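HUMAN: Quick job: go over this next protein and say how the chain folds.
***
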Amino acid sequence: MLNIFKAILFGIIEGITEWLPISSTGHLILAEAFVKFQGLSEGFWDMFEVVIQLGAILAVVILYFKAIWPIKKKESKHGDNGFKLDKNILNLWGKIIVSCIPAIAIVLLGIDDFADEHFYNPTCIAIMLIVVGIAFIIIEKMKKKSPRVNDIKELTYKDAVIIGIFQLIAAIFPGTSRSGATIIGALLIGISRTVAAEYTFYLAIPAMAGASLLKVLDFGFAFTKEELAVLIVGTIVSLIVSIFIIKFLMNYIKKHDFKVFGYYRIVLGAIVIALLLAGVIV
């Protein structure tokens, strides 16, 4: 039963930190240093912290279903029933796929395994928390001109490629934050904050679903009843919390910039370094 309460805690952390550009990986590793599952299979945690992202993905699907589902009902005065494909949404998915190509490439080349072995540690995470936090502050302070792109339909395939490259950085260096990296990339090329955040949500669907599938395949399907319960609870909590956080973020950035998240990342990175030096986490 205790593991269920821990799953709820981790689900809350995932739901909050996946969409705010503050690194879900950094927060989960920090939380896991103090709160650990007991009596579960070896390797379960590595799988759990990725797969509960499915709840966060489902939140995006629920909130933005009309914006991302390309099959629409025909509207005809003659009562002609049927369906049609929305070309704008199909075009959007084309850009999302293009943005995912760099991340797919590192998986096929095995670079992700190298990154997990060499960079998946508290030291690297702390450094990336601080570096990306500083980047957010600098970019927002330098931001003078009006955005070039104020509607997601205005995104070009060139924009999609650049954003995909920034997502690649997050895939290699944990602590970067996938949403943080893609938002920074979008801001740098003149995309508005709201469009940057919205596109980041959409881009998460194939990126996180693919990562979750790979982790499940690697772990296998031999879950115990308790492990399955823990995974389901964590995912459901992540879903519920994500719905509120996505709404909060979209309302927040209509009137504010991302600097507060930059300052938060720097403070968190400093805390992780302090805990490392104190031997609390290794």
